[in-house]
Amino acid sequence: MADLKAKFNQAAEDIKKLGERPDNDTLLKLYALYKQGSDGDVSGPKPGFFDFVGTAKYEAWGKLKGMKADDAMQKYVDLVKKLGS
């Protein structure tokens, strides 16, 4: 678990150093996996109707409801590695 957490934290740093910005769908996936891995299932009120970005993030995270934190962390690490190669 500690090893996965270290890889997860390293991936969160590595994503900031990518040569080019990922597309919006990939960014949403990264956001959702990160939140699921670090915070668990979606929580808090859904953003307002006119907060399009906030709503998209909330819904992307909500789609991962029930995914174990370890699984989300591993998928995040794998996606960051794929983007970095």
Structure characterization notes:
- The structure is a single chain.
- 66% of the residues lie in helices and 0% in strands.
- The protein has one domain (2-84): Acyl-CoA Binding Protein, CATH 1.20.80.
- It is built from four helices and no strands.
- The model has no long low-confidence stretch (mean pLDDT 95).
- It has 85 residues and is mainly α.
- It is flat, with a radius of gyration of 13 Å.
- The protein starts with a helix and ends with a helix.
Helical residue percent?
Answer: 55-70%
User: What sort of overall outline do the alpha carbons produce when their principal axes are compared?
Assistant: flat
Radius of gyration: 13 Å
Low-confidence stretches: none
CATH class categorisation: Mainly Alpha
Topology-level CATH name = Acyl-CoA Binding Protein
Looking at the overall shape, the CATH architecture is: Up-down Bundle
Number of helices: 4
Mean pLDDT: 95
Distance between the termini: 25 Å
**SSE order, as H and E?**
HHHH
In terms of structural class, how would the helical and strand content be classed? mainly alpha
**Beta strand %:** under 5%
Total individual domains:
1
Major β-sheet, in short? none
| Strand element count | 0
Secondary-structure blueprint of this entry?
Blueprint: H1 2-14, H2 24-39, H3 52-62, H4 69-84
